Amino acid sequence: MNSTLANASLEPQVSITVTLGDSEQVQRGANLTQAQAPDANLGKGIELPLYFDVAGSTLQPGTGVAGARLYGGTGNDLIYGGNDNDKLYGEDDNDLLVGFDGDDELYGGAGNDELSGGAGRDLVDGGTGADYLVGGLGADVLNGGDGADQIVGDAPYLTGTNNFPTGIDRNQMGGDFVNGGAGNDSIWGDGGDDYLFGGADQDLVFGGEGDDHLFGDGGEDELQGGNGGDYLDGGADKDLLYGEAGSDLLLGGTGDDRLEGDDGDDILDGGDDNDKLFGGSGQDNLRGGSGNDKLWGDGGQTNEGADILEGGAGNDELFGGGKGDMYVFTKGDGLDTITDDGADGSRNIVVFKFASNEVRTLERSGTDLLIKYGVDDQVTVKGFYGGSTFSIGSPGAGSDAVEGDAQRTIAEIRFEDGAVWGADEILAKAPAPAAGSLPPDPFAALEPLYFINALLSREQVKAAGKHFLTYSFATSAPAGTTGLYAFSEEQKQAVRDALWRFTSVLDLHFSESASGAATDLTFTLDDLDSAGLSGFAGYASSQTGAVHLNSSLYSAERRNEFNQLVTRGSLSVGNNGFEVLLHEIGHALGLKHPFEAPLLPNSEDSTANTVMSYTSSGTPATSLAPFDVAALQYLYGVSGYLGSSFGGDSYSFNDRWIQDRVGAADSFDAVNETADLVVNLTPGSWNYKGQKAATILAENQSFIGFGTLIEQAQTGSGNDSLTGNDADNVLGAGAGNDSMQGGAGNDTLNGQNGDDELRGDMTGAAGGNDLLQGDAGSDTYFWGLGQGNDVVVESAGQADDVDTLRIEGGLTPADLFFTRYGNHLLLRVRDSVDRLTVTDYFSGDVIERLVFDDGTQMNAAEVAANLSSGSTNEADFYSGTAGADSLDGQAGDDWINGLAGADTVMGGAGNDTLYGEDGSDMLLGGDGNDVLDGGNGDDFLRGGAGNDVYQASAGNDSYRFGPGDGTDTLNLPTNVDGIHTIVLADGVLPGAITLSAGSTGNDVEVIITATGDRLIVKSFMSQVVNGASQGRLALKFSDGTTWSGSEIVQRVFAGTAGADKIYALQIASSLSGGAGDDTLQGGAGNDTIDGGTGNDRLGGAGGDDQLTDGEWMDGGAGSDIYVWGRGSGLNVIAESSNSATDIDVLKIKAGISPGDLKLYRSGNDLNLLVSNTEDAVAVTQHFSGMAVEKFVFDDGTVWDAAAIVANTGSAPQFAGTSGNDVIALSPFNDSFSAGAGNDSVQALSGDDNVLGEDGSDSLDGGLGRDQILGGNGDDLL
User: 0.85 exceeded by the pTM?
Assistant: First the structure.
């Protein structure tokens, strides 16, 4: 059915003429008037005039071979074709044309039209205006015409998705021919092998599926190939070409173009002008063409693909990336630069398309190689001598491998005449720097482990030595920087998340400063063009702390195939950009690439081990890798966030990376191992089973992380080497001939069976006090100057064992004291605190020989012959015999043990340690701070001058104490038998001493009042309060008066003039604070507690207690009585028991009648005031269950709870006037403004706020913490 529009301008009635096709008829509709009633059998070609009564009506043709010809004319028309070959004409205005099935022709005409061809091979022409064209299924031809058109070759996606409508047969999507025409068009090819032409102006063209041909034509166009092997031609002007998936051909044409091959083996040709080419993954061929071009083989982010790079004419920069790249040059190419990291150790080749004799010279410039050829052409190979920046070691001669299979930047140069120059010949023509002419490697002497060394930058690091760093986000950039963007909040959060990854493992703390501030680290989003690195995701400088991120990746938006504006990458966790953040922050903090000398083996150079690698291990990194953590902790130390929370962890060779910082004792368990082991608990150590592998990643290798503190280790039956750390280690070596060495702590080393070597401390290090135990086998012990106080326990020896003590540090026998105490041998270094005890040396567990550094040897008989008598003016260490000995240490810090018998042991001058052991002994400390322990028996102990410590032991011991003795301590445990008597010196009578419970209330302090000397019986009061016997202690005066333990306790309860802290017994007790600010605490009994004078704090605890004169009182559980009256000042009753059975009473002393009291409520508190006085009581929480139930007056009046409520009024109001006021405030916390006038204000007690305001005022804050402001006028404060 074909139709011709007539009288199009007539409304509302419009007439058309319909020409019927075969088997077609017209049926009457709601808006149709037939000018001539049709006959059902009207034949083909019959014309029928029709009229539409309503404008905008729809004509829906049926089916037929000839199809419909429909003309919309003027107005916004909706025209639908049939399932045959229709021709639809929208003509004027904004029309909707739908062809449905068949090979249709749709012409939008003028206006912004929407045209859909449907199935079949359609011709769709938008005409003028901004049209939306959809070709539908089949191979269609679409012309956008003039205007900014949107053209879809096949079918549009469902809104907001990348899915086609349900039921679409994608196999019927044909190869479309699309021409955008004039205007800024958006074109989608969809399925099939399409030919897409942007036409004039700025177009956006998407190839979609299939092998498409995309042409930008004129204007600054963006072409995206999509899937398939696509052909992209930017044409004139500055274009963006993205090959995307598949092996694509990209032609920039004229203009400064950007070409990105992305996936596949692509060919990129920049054409004229200054272009940027990015090969992406795959083996790409990049040709810059004329102009100053930049070529990146791998897109600057990955190490994928062995690429061919040919800059062409102009001064070009070539970045190969990973794999073995080929750089091609010919005469006339200009001044070109090669930068290739050689990250994966592949062989890079330079190819010259001319004979080798065209090369003028090879030269070294710093670390770069210069190849000069032709008339004035040159290739600069950046970093060719990079391994020679420092004296790190040769990167290898020629093509020889260095640390695995890493190579020089360029492995060889090839020429058209067949000549090949390998690395050897290149170095012969342009030698590397001479040995010794380079600065030394700053880490050479430190010898860090290889995987740490390979990441440490040799450049200056701004953050070095710091632990608190600031950072900011740049809002401006240096001149010449382009593509600057502000960070979004999401991007800022990504930076914060990345910095936390560092803080969580390092002793580094980052604080954010205002954007644009000068800080240690500055984050900038720019296109990196000013640094010549626009092909990279980012770069950073350790010297400046600048971290630059590529804004073209993370900020600049482009339109995707869904017509959405998106960035090409994200910095958030889980994306490649977050890995870039970790990488660049690593640079800023002093890490380098692992492919820069010194090198990491190629097999370990991946992001699985370090985020500083360019070789991806798969998914983007979300945290630092093990090598990064180790290297950064080497530089900055370990975070306090690291480590087990509870400790007690066990590790083994199954744990490659061990990081454990806090908690209970941890262990390294290798007890079941039979191979020889090396176990070193020192943080940063490499442990191994059997042989040390070339890589820490091999089996049976383990690394103890920095900051890790493992306290214990046990090895197996092999010949092991076991070393401790700074902790107090317990090390066991098992069977085998083992070598053991402690660290700085107080270590226990047990060699167990085998011929072992045991050294308590590292040679030359400050020594701890170590225990060395060899057990069976011929063991060797090491000890010497600076090794501390060590103990050797040689046990379970066999008859044929020959144990050796090697004495180091240049010591000779003349430098030592040999002393026997008991069955032990003591060796002491003269003029030193170092000593060694060999336990049970004289009872069979003998060290058979002593060997000195000068070769001198001593056997057991020679040791016995050199035993010292022990009494010298130096630090003696010896013991008596089983008899009654008289031992005098003389000067020096002595250690003397009387052993059995009734001994007299004198320390003399110095800080001595004296033991009586068995027998009734006399111990005299002499001058110095001495420790005296009588042992069993009835002993007499006198410390003398100095602050001495008495250790009570079994028996009825006496402790002499008097003026000039200093501050002595008696430790009297509850499990020690006997009566322990403090015997006071001549002239010290009962009135000359003061008894106190001490500052904690737990002790008994016997103080000579006149001199201040005191003897503290530690914890005696707390022991008695908890039920220990009082009879264990006695105090005897020079006149014979003796106070028993119970009398001592009662006198302590009486308090002193000072600030006492006294705790009652768990039975009824009477406590008195006396003068001073006291703390008195009752017990479980019915206690009587009197604070006395001073600011006292009284607590009743359990029982029915009476509390008097306390500034703060809490009776606790029980029915308590609080005593208060005139002159008591401001008191607080803070009753803490709300038991219904407790009846607490406020007992009011004589002189206060009911009429003298003023009661008012303040919140839940009850406040009591005595008229015209500063006496007051605050009963806290009285109205919330913690009430004092009765008030009892001295005249017999009793107020119960109801009477208390009835007598409670409103709070006093204090308000100044404009006159001259005289006002006294309450004893509580008041706020008062005096107003105008010359006022006189007395604030009394409480923490008050007083404002004088206008006038000459007299303001007195009284007691408490007051704030007084005079205001205007001449005030007296």
Answer: no
